[in-house]
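Per-record layout

source: Crossiella cryophila
name: Anhydro-N-acetylmuramic acid kinase
length: 410
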Amino acid sequence: MKSWRVLGLLSGTSMDGIDVAAAEFRLAADGWLELRPLGCLDVPYPAELRAELLAALPPADCSARQLCRLDTLVGRAFGVAALRGLTELCDGQADLIGSLGQTIYHWVEDGRCEGTLQLGQPAWIAEATGLPVVADLRTRDVAAGGHGAPLAGLFDQLWLGHGRARTAALNLGGIANISVVGGGLPPLAYDTGPGNALLDSAARLLPERRERDEGGRLAAIGSPHPDLLSALLADPYYELPPPKSTGKEYFTAEYLHAALARLATPPSIPDLLATLVELTARTVAQECDRQEATRVVASGGGVHNATLMAALSRHLAPAELVTSAAEGLPADGKEGYLAALLGLLTFCGQPGNLPAATGAVGPRPLGSITPGRTALLLPAPWPRPPVALRCVATGADRGHTTGEPVRTGG
């Protein structure tokens, strides 16, 4: 079997930096795709770039000049991160890179996605590494009538969909999304609402303007504000049928300020954070219950918020809540491995979307390919798509004996 070594890159809606994951893939004769995690790392954005990205989000205006600068600066930052991943995780050897980029705007009107924009010009990544780059992975699904999100649906169907239990793969990024698979039923995936987006906005209201409530410590000493929680839960997004998608252009700091302005007495910051924890937990649990999930496998930055995880466990009961590490993938690295898989599927002539998840009219190969330093030589297309995905423990790779992939800070 030929193996493929692939780097996956993305920056989530929290815009705090670039996630890099390295994986080795093998397509077995039985149609199973093996994923061997080689490690993952975080590369923080330069403070000035992150500030510019956050300042460009709606409702702010963004000029053509600013958009061009950001696309270039994010592309350069992705190139630096990719080179680090290539050197530190792959011993300088890889076949290609898949990049989900940095979402700056997701255009949804009347429940239909009309367009989506990810920054991070792939030419800079190809120039930095010399490798071909598969990028702009969402737009083709949108052109085919889908939402371009969540693209994790196919990954989760291959990874968890062959089990008997109806399982929800939960990503707790700035926006929370679920893929519900297995149990002999068709897969389904969609955004449930805010994950960390409003929580991070609330943390910035503190005098020291924190980026987040680390570990949910402040939320843990607060109590949900009943009137605010009721108002937030009344948002019509939660009643829309799937497939559906949303983003930080909807759940903005201004969205939170407007909700607070309607209160006679504003809550304390701990009470506000406790309210937003409850909002995320309830809206996620409501959708998992609606889809009859009996097991929830969580990943993303939100799994480090102990208060949020405790609230989720309480609202999801009797469904089981575990992190993706229980299924062989580090909770912080799953989205990076998704980007790697999507890049590989496109490179090998296979579709990367799951129409039942995104709403597209059919399966489509995703993205566009930027050549590396040499002529682009595509492999012969795989004769059929993979039937399932299994994670293979790394064993003693890179000095680890537990099978947990290495993770290093940026």
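summary: The longest strand covers residues 96-109. The longest helix spans residues 64-90.
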